[in-house]
Amino acid sequence: MAETGRDGPTKSATADREIVISRVISAPRELVFEAFTEVRHLSQWWGPEGFTTTTRAFEFRVGGAWDFVMHGPDGTDYQEWISWTEIAPPERIALRHGEFRGDPDAFESILTFTPEGSATRIEMRTIFPTKKLRDEAAEKYHAIEGGEQTLRNLATYVTQILRKGAEN
Fold it and tell me: Which InterPro entries match (predicted)?
């Protein structure tokens, strides 16, 4: 991703290893942040289209972990593990994500939640250990499309919460 410096556009040092996805969600930042940080919400929307999630352990704190299985629409199970490295409610979360604790191919993600009027822009910046792993995630596992679908699922879920709240 390009960033602008005093002397014009410059590339970040990790640009060739990154995937950046963002979406504006029509909901307050606090609600979007809550949906991303409480397991009762996460299990309702996490993952690309057609995937479901089973949580084995969840402890939301710096150093805590979310151990879960994503079930693909073709019946394949994917072991997943996330550990939070920074939590700054309701603005930012940083995490490591791999198949298991100590996974050498684990990647880092930084999520920012920025108000845009009454809506929230969520940006998910994922930084892979190598360009090869980034390219493999994008090409073999369709990480960009999957990330976009995941944020779309989040937007749909949060919109349903707001609609139900308005009806009650």
Answer: ASHA1/2-like_C, START-like_dom_sf
**Counting Cβ atoms within 10 Å, is residue 95 exposed (0-12), middle (13-18) or buried (19+)?**
buried
Nearby residues of 15 by Cβ (< 8 Å), 6 or more positions away? 1, 2
Contact (Cβ atoms closer than 8 angstroms) between residue 120 and residue 32: yes
Considering just the CA atoms, what is the radius of gyration of the chain in Å? 16
CB 108 within 8 A of CB 92: no
Relative orientation angle of helices 29-37 and 143-167, to the nearest 10 degrees: 120
DSSP 82: E
CA 40 and chain centroid, separation: 16
Q: What is the pLDDT of residues 58-114, one digit of tens each?
A: 999 999 999 999 999 999 999 999 999 999 999 999 999 999 999 999 999 999 999
The single-letter DSSP state of residue 15 is G
Q: Rounded CA gap, 131 and 133, in Å?
A: 5
With beta carbons less than 8 A apart as the criterion, state whether 21 and 121 touch.
no
